[in-house]
Each structure stands twice: as C-alpha cells, then as structure tokens.
Amino acid sequence: MDRLRKAKSCLRERYRVRKIGVFGSYTRNEQGSESNADIPVELDEPIEWDVVDLKEEPERMLGLPVDLALKGGIVRRPRLMRAVDEEAIYV
C-alpha cells in the first residue's frame, strides 16, 4: 500500500487516475504466494490504450501480477462492483 500511495501523484499526472487502491485477497489478508493484486482504479477520463501501461506501472512497483478493475468497466458487473465497494482500500 505504501508503494502505491507514493506512486499515486505520478499515476494521476500520467494517466489521470482519480482513485486507486487494493481489494480482494490482499485486503482480507488471504493472499498466498500465487496471489495477484486486485487494483480498483477510477479515472478522470478514458485513457484508451494507455491502460496497458497503467497496468504495468503497479506491477513494477509492487513486484507482482496486477488485475486492474476500472470503475467504468465494472459497473456492468454487479458482483465485482459490490466486492470493490465492500473491500477496497484506497490510497
């Protein structure tokens, strides 16, 4: 979380990230050696193909695989949206 918190201003400037955090196994302290980090992201505006780069930045910072959950994309998936709303810890 600290690494993500430190990188937030850079991510905001480069990708217009409004909110970023973690949810899933890492917030429930259930992560294992094969776990990835589930990262909810809310953007000020669409970034098109730059989303690929946005995914790679947290992977480099955290040193583990990342699944991005873009708010604009998960609103159509109620179960995932509910998990993010209930578990997410934003930095």
Summarize the structure.
The protein is α+β, with helices and mostly antiparallel strands and 91 residues long. The chain is 45% helix and 22% strand.
CATH homologous superfamily grouping: Beta Polymerase, domain 2
Order of helices and strands: HEEHEHHE
What fold name stands as the CATH topology?
A: Beta Polymerase, domain 2
Number of strands: 4
Q: Give a quick account of the main beta sheet: strands, pairing sense, barrel closure.
A: 4 strands, mixed
Percent of residues in helices comes to: 40-55%
Radius of gyration: 12 Å
Count of discrete alpha- or pi-helical segments spanning 4 or more residues? 4
Percent strand: 15-25%
Structural class of the helix and strand makeup? alpha+beta
What is the first-to-last residue Cα distance? 7 Å
What is the annotated CATH architecture? 2-Layer Sandwich
Q: Regions with pLDDT < 50 over 5+ consecutive residues?
A: none
Using the coordinates above, name the CATH class. Answer: Alpha Beta
Shape: globular
Structurally, the number of domains stands at: 1
Q: Overall pLDDT, averaged?
A: 91
Strand order of the largest sheet: 3-2-1-4
Detailed description of the structure:
The chain has 91 residues and is α+β, with helices and mostly antiparallel strands. It has one domain: Beta Polymerase, domain 2, CATH 3.30.460. Helix content is 45%, strand content 22%. It is built from four helices and four strands; from the N terminus they run αββαβααβ. It has helices at residues 2-15, 50-62, 71-74, 78-87; strands at residues 17-22, 37-43, 66-70, 89-90. A four-stranded mixed β-sheet has the order 3-2-1-4. The relative contact order is 0.24.
